[in-house]
Amino acid sequence: MIDNEKINPDVEKEVVPAGGPGEEMHLDDARRVKVLSPGMLVFKRFIRNRLAVIGLIILLVMFIFSFFGPFLSTYGQTQVFKGIGSMSKEYASAIYNEELRYSISEGETFGSAERAQFLLAVGKNTDTFTYKDAIYYFTTEGEGVYRILQLDPVAEVLLGIYKPMAGGTVADDLKAAYESAVKKEQKSFNLNGITYRITPKNKAAIISTEHDVALAMLSVYDAYNQANDSTVASYAFKLASSRAIAQEKAAFSVGSQLFTVRYDEGQATVLDSTDKEFAEVSNIIVRALDQSAFLSVDFKSAIRQSINDRLTKFTYTDENGQSVDYTIVRVNKTYNIKRETPTELIRTFEEPSAEHFLGLDNNGMDVMTRLMYGGRVSLLVGFVVIFIEVAIGVVIGGISGYFGGWVDTGLMRFVDLFNSIPFYPMVLIFGSVMDALEVDPMVRIFLLMAVLGLLGWTGVARIVRGQILSLREQDFMVATEATGIRTSRRIFRHLVPNVMPLLIVQATAGLGGIIITEATLGFLGLGIKYPLASWGSIINVASDSFVMTNYWFMWIPAGMLILLTVLGFNFVGDGLRDAYDPKMKR
Amino acid sequence: MVEKQHETSTQRPDYVLEVKNLKQYFPIKAGLMQRVVGYVKAVDGISFAIERGKTMGLVGESGCGKTTVGKTILRLNQKTSGEVIFNGKEIFSLDKNELRSLRPKMQIIFQDPYSSLSPRLPVSEIIGEAVKEHSIVPDSEYDNHLDHIMKSCGLEPYHKDRYPHEFSGGQRQRICIARALALNPDFVVCDEPVSALDVSIQAQIINLLKDLQDKFSLTYLFISHDLSVVEHISDNVGVMYLGDLVEYGSKIHIFKNPLHPYTQALLSAAPVPDPSAKMNRIILEGSIPSPANPPAGCKFHTRCREVMEICKSVPPQVREVEPGHKVVCHLYN
Predict the structure, then answer these.
(1) In chain A, which residues have their Cβ closer than 8 Å to the Cβ of B164?
(2) Which residues, listed in sequence order, are joined to residue A335 by a DSSP beta bridge?
(3) A5/B112 touch (CB, cutoff 8 Å), yes or no
(4) Are A476 and B183 an interchain contact pair (Cβ–Cβ within 8 Å)?
(5) B120-134 pLDDT, tens digit each
(6) C-alpha angle B82/B84/B89, rounded to 5°?
(7) Of A80, A128, B261, B281, which residue is the least packed, with the fewest Cβ within 10 Å?
(8) What is the C-alpha to C-alpha distance for residues A53 and A104, in angstroms, rounded to an integer?
(9) Chain segment B253-293, per-residue pLDDT in tens
(10) CB contact A331 to B (< 8 Å)
(11) What's the average model confidence in pLDDT over A353-369?
């Protein structure tokens, strides 16, 4: 309340020509002093505050960046950048076969119950086993190769008495052959080209013929030519080949066909009569991970070779002449064969480059562009929320202060009520409710603004009320009553302009706080939702410590923007407060 | 207390304002329920009348209720009881619109020229706002009226666009006076208009007020605690103590022949601008009692040097000791 301009020597003086020519002006003539409105004075004081000007410049830059930046950016807010990259993908797996695989002779059955009995017998080291009425016998052809036969009893011998099974009589030559075999302690004998087997049953012995049922072995067969699949899968081929391989024979025949065997480490290759590869026998199972993919026998062979050689990577050239590198990763007993596959990849966490000044984020979106759009949201939220807060605060505070009495008491208790709503729990609940309702991200922004505004107006209301209460008792307000000015004019022409400075300061300083709140909510995942961005939600990726330590460009720019903006608002707020303070002279 | 006894023999004077047994109590609220536990008896039944074109001075020490009287007369406070008759109308019986149309006729000039001007309005609006509001002059004459008033109050027309902070205290008080006078009032309450100003400015303002009184034929209620100022400007003087008007009379009566011990003490305390003059000071012991709990009997008895037994129990009655000179004291019974 000091006559600023008069005692201020360095204010530009302006000679106001008054009172006509010839009238002499003195240095202390009041008319020489330039007249400034309170608004201009405030502006002048504000401009002289260097920190406030810096704050104002920061804010201007932020606004240009956020509101005009997106027009200049060639990228969209939610544009995802992809690139072709090589990716090691699991392609096939290989495992040493440890389970017996059964090839069942045509027309026979050998179900899981029989298999269980068989495995028990193998374990007990006996060569016969029964299941239901059937008697089975098996021979070990080689390591891991078992030939399972079913016995068809012909007769039972008990103390020299022959009892035919199927009725009729037992031929004498059979009796003679049996007795001679018993004498020689043989378990089987041959008669007329038929092999008979003697098996004990309690005190009796049973003479029976036999026929092939199944072959149990650890090896797997892969036919080189798909046309030969049926042959390779046939019982006769498997029996002959497995027997030959078990005994490491060089050749074997199935029917009229002659096959030779070439032995490699861990696997054997069956060649047909023309020395062409016919089938591959190995105890390593190779499977493609993708069920639809077909693995050629050559490829399988290469894998087996590599596994046997304990190699960790190999190169396979397919029939089209394409060389592909594979790596073998052993996981317990399984070997995973990975292939370098060209894939369309989202370019996540890409370092800053000339193309993307601040790199790409975890979703392959341009960080710079998202910062611009995020700034829009953050600043807009700040302004809308402060607007709501001030609007509600001025109305409630104004009514409370102007009318006083029980209206004041009631409204202030209402303010107390609002003040005692815990802010973060409320917002947390609100956030999860919106999550549950799957609110559209855009709608969510506006709801968020409304909630923040509704929870935050009490401070403004209290300040306005306090200010109006004190203004109401000022003599100039009594004077308006004495001069009979109408109520509306008293409020809007006398009270409001005097509350305005405080409000502007309060709102400016409050903006920083709201931007912080919005960022906090964004960081907690309660604010603006993907794919829309806000500065807070951009920083959210830094909650992963790996991202925080390795990708600085993900969160430092957003953090700096928040920091600078809040700092800017605080500087401007402080500057305005000082500028409005009548005790400040300049 | 002081009852105005109308002279029946002579013609009744033209009173702008008559105050009859005005009481203004402010409730003291306490506790959670804001229960009224007592009253501050700021004005405890005073009566006086002011003739048109005259100035009545109202003196008394701080807190005796002078300002409250001024504000209640203008119905800026709600009275507790009594009557305030302005230009023949009981102002507390007026409804809102009647009161509003009467407002321009009675104005007030405040003590503090700093808080009484809205800091965010230019001078032209401060002065002219109510002129427009009440259409005091036709719109075509508005500017002339404003210039005329400002000039009368010692302000220059180029001050119009300025804001209160650009003026000194004396100039601000001129703005306040201009605001009051722009409404062409009949009656102005001057609520210690010069006590916030330095002495040279005080003289300017007092003289301005006197000039304006002649020019616009104004009636003043001049509230002050400065006896020399009151002596200079007033025609009649009332002395207030603790909400009561203890002595009332013409300037000559009060200053040459003070009857009430309180008036005597006040006058003896006034500084005389002559260092060699012998002063016969009457020292009042203690401070003014609380108006919430005034002493029984004569309110002044706790500090009076001529206190008698009767003073402590019986409230004194008004006595007209000589024509137009009334006093409320047991000494004159």
Answers:
(1) 1
(2) A94, A330
(3) no
(4) no
(5) 888 999 999 999 989
(6) 130
(7) B281
(8) 92
(9) 899 989 999 999 888 887 777 778 777 788 887 777 888 88
(10) no
(11) 86
Residue B122 forms contact with A (CB below 8 Å): yes
Looking at residue B317, its amino acid is Q
What separation in angstroms does the CA of A511 have from each of A45, A419, A520?
22, 19, 14
> Is the pLDDT confidence value at B77 over 90?
no
Instruction: Provide the whole-model pTM.
Output: 0.65
Q: In the CATH scheme, what is the code of domain A46-81+356-580?
A: 1.10.3720.10
The Cα B119–Cα B112 span in angstroms is 13
Amino acid letter, B79: K
HSE of B179, CA atoms in CB hemisphere, 13 A: 35
Partner-chain residue, chosen from B120, B134, B180, that has the shortest CB–CB distance to A497: B120
Distance in angstroms between the alpha carbons of the first and the last residue of chain A: 12
ipTM of this complex: 0.85
Domain definitions of chain A by residue range? 46-81+356-580, 96-276, 283-346
CA atoms of A66 and A381, how far apart (whole Å): 13
Structure tokens at A28: 């202390």
Is B213 at the interface with chain A, CB within 8 A? no
Residues in chain A closer than 8 A to B111 (CB atoms): 475
Cβ <8 Å between B76 and A476:
no
| pLDDT score for A1 | 42
From chain B, pick out residues whose CB is under 8 angstroms from the CB of A8. none
CB contact under 8 A, A35 and B162: yes
Report the DSSP beta bridge partners of residue A142.
A145
- List, for residues A210-243, the tens digit of each pLDDT value: 888 888 888 888 877 777 777 777 888 888 888 7
